[in-house]
């Protein structure tokens, strides 16, 4: 049997784009990050070229897809990642043979673009000694929401473990309001809260254009939920909706959020909001093993599941290190936390744009 042929699909061709989009939509393992609108939003907002690698059989049928973003950064070097700014989006294929061919084709693109590092986030991973498989660094957290119906909000609250439920109740007693939407105000307030949140953690904020492009591309499959105290936003999250699952993807709170338990209220409100939209599952996203976020999600009753990524580096070169928890960034993080917010918001997008 002939090996699958791989080519870069020109997404500007409406017929080619529609055919690939339909194949992705039908594939049982496709994630929100395999959707063309994700890849195109990242490319539009960051300037990182999207390469749509497609494998096909002798009859011309699609058998696999791998979205690649060519990330270029003066600080972190060049890399190709699948998919850019995502926690998944690796090889999507009908069989192992197609996955292997796509992995080889991706490395060829790395060589052509002088990118010494190639990262595949999730998907079918290559069984090849030239690749390093990492399965102990990150974990994902997914759980079922309660069934919709009478008293569903109360049942959802009772689903949360006792200690965490007490924190949610304290937050609910603080008289905060919740708003959802994608308006200009929703976007502005979300970005302001998120930018302050990541500054406080010592990491640069992503370009606002990335958030706008994702919201525009996903349409009804993305929205913002914001928690306000006396009409002042204190916590906000941008969520993606995919196949009955909600994923709070970019969220955070200002300094006051902790005392108000605004983040606790935010995630509980999102559970209820998503269930009302017809979602059956809540994907709390990934976290570094043994991090504060890892413990927080376990406190909510979510069981961690290991996530596996594959990395290949050019011979003799060290892997790209963009992990904010890496010891080599400890000093930079401490300094960033002290930056005035205005300066952090001007410098942050330039730095974060190269993280991919």
Automatic annotation (TrEMBL):
Residues 165-298 form the BioF2-like acetyltransferase domain. This is FemAB family PEP-CTERM system-associated protein. It holds the Pfam family Acetyltransf_6. InterPro entries: Acyl_CoA_acyltransferase (IPR016181), BioF2-like_GNAT_dom (IPR038740), PEP-CTERM_FemAB-rel (IPR017469), PG_Glycine_Bridge_Synth (IPR050644). SUPFAM superfamilies: Acyl-CoA N-acyltransferases (Nat). Coiled coil: none annotated. It comes from Sphingomonas ursincola.
């Amino acid at each position: 049997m002939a090996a699958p042929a791989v080519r870069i699909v020109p997404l500007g061709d409406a017929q080619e784009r529609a055919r690939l989009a339909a194949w992705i939509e039908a594939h049982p393992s496709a994630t929100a990050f395999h959707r063309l609108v994700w890849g195109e939003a990242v490319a539009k907002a960051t300037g990182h070229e999207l390469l749509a690698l497609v494998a096909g059989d002798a009859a011309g049928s699609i058998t696999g897809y791998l979205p690649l973003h060519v990330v270029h950064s003066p600080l972190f070097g060049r890399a190709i990642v699948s998919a850019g700014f995502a926690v998944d989006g690796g090889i999507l294929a009908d069989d192992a043979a197609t996955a292997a061919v796509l992995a080889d084709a991706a490395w060829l693109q790395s060589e052509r673009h002088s990118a010494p590092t190639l990262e595949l986030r999730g998907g079918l991973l290559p069984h090849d000694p030239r690749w390093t498989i990492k399965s102990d660094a990150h974990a994902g957290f997914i759980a079922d929401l309660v069934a919709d119906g009478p008293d569903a909000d109360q049942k959802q609250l009772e689903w949360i473990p006792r200690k965490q439920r007490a924190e949610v109740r304290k937050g609910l007693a603080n008289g905060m309001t919740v708003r959802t939407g994608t308006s200009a105000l929703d976007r502005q307030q979300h970005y302001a809260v998120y930018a302050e949140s990541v500054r406080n953690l010592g990491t640069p904020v992503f370009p606002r254009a990335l958030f706008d492009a994702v919201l525009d591309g996903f349409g009804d499959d993305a929205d913002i939920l914001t928690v306000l105290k006396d009409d002042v936003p204190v916590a906000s999250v941008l969520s993606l909706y995919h196949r009955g699952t909600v994923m709070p993807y970019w969220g955070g709170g200002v300094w006051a959020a902790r005392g108000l338990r605004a983040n606790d209220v935010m995630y509980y409100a999102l559970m209820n909001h998503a269930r009302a939209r017809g979602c059956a599952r809540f994907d709390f996203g990934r976290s570094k093993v043994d991090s504060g976020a890892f413990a927080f999600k376990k406190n909510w009753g979510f069981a961690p599941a290991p996530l596996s990524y594959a990395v290949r580096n050019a011979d003799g070169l060290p892997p790209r290190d963009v992990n904010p928890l890496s010891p080599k960034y400890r000093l930079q993080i401490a300094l960033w936390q002290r930056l005035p917010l205005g300066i952090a918001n001007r410098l942050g997008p330039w730095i974060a744009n190269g993280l991919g």
